[in-house]
Amino acid sequence: LMLYRNHRCPCDLPVKITLRDGQTCTGVIINISPWGVRLARVPPMTPGEHIFITLPSIVAPAEAEVRWSGGPYVGVRFAKQVDTRTIALVRKSVSHRPNAKHSDWNSKLRELR
Q1: How confident is the model over 38-49, as pLDDT tens digits?
Q2: Across the chain, where does the E strand assignment appear?
Q3: Whole-angstrom distance, CA of residue 27 vs CA of residue 13
C-alpha cells in the first residue's frame, strides 16, 4: 500500500513555536506542504506532542502535531490545511536569504504520512 504524500516546497523560514505548556522556542521551516512542515534546529520533541507554529499571514498560530523526530529534524502535521497564500509566503523565505546554505535539507529522511 502506497500512501499519497503532498508535494513539499523547500524554504528557509525562522518561526516561533509554542508548546502546549506555554513555553516557546524557535526553529526553521525547511519544507512545507498544505498539511505539514519539516522543522530544523528545534529542541527534541515527542511524536504525538501538540504544538502551535506562528506562520506568516495567519492571525492565530497554526495548531500541529509532531509526527516524527529524528536528530535535529521534526516532522509536523497541521490540524487544519494551510492555505496556498501562506505556503507562497513561506516559500518566498528562501529568496529572503540569498546566501543561505540549505544543509538542513535531507531528502533521505522520511516525511509526514
Answers
A1: 999 999 899 999
A2: 9-19, 24-33, 36-40, 50-53, 62-70, 73-78
A3: 8
